[in-house]
Amino acid sequence: EVLLAESGGGSVQSGGSLRLSCAALGFDFNVTPMSWVRQAPGKGVEWVAGINSAGGSTAYAHTVKGRFTISRDNAQSTVYLQMTDLRPEDTAMYYCARTAEASKSPRGQGTQVTVSP
């Protein structure tokens, strides 16, 4: 069974930073491209960032490029999202996903990020 457990969310003021983590189980993490996606209230799932299996290639949505950094630790089967210069429009539930499933309903519980003006 695929298990993805997100953590690290919280409430911050505009301009603040957070680091999200996602622990993965149940599949061969080392060969799996991973992504972070988010869903704001009343909106669809938005892809945020992706990273290849080795961690050497990353991609970002234009809305977060330059502010967010995705990384991974294959020894720990964990993917991270460092978020800086947070804005109110970043407020959402954040999920990690296997990139191949990034457009589908998220598997995990997610972690809430709330940014106040």
Name the poorly predicted regions.
none
CA-to-CA gap between the ends? 40 Å
Q: Helical content, roughly?
A: under 10%
The percentage of residues in β strands lies in: over 45%
Assign the structural class, choosing from mainly alpha, mainly beta, alpha/beta, alpha+beta, or little secondary structure: mainly beta
Instruction: Give average pLDDT, whole number.
Output: 96
| Number of strand segments | 10
The Cα radius of gyration reads 13 Å
Give the topology string: H per helix, E per strand: EEEEEEEEEE
Kindly report the spatial arrangement of strands forming the biggest sheet.
2-10-9-4-5-6
> Describe the biggest sheet?
6 strands, mixed
Number of helices: 0
Cα shape: globular
Structure description:
The chain has a 6-stranded mixed sheet with strand order 2-10-9-4-5-6, with no helix packed on it. It has a 4-stranded antiparallel sheet with strand order 1-3-8-7, with no helix packed on it. Helices cover 0% and strands 50% of the residues. It contains no helices and 10 strands. The termini are far apart. The chain is globular. 32% of the residues are buried. It has strands at residues 3-7, 10-13, 18-25, 34-39, 45-51, 58-60, 68-73, 78-83, 92-98, 111-116. It is mainly β and 117 residues long. The model has no long low-confidence stretch (mean pLDDT 96).
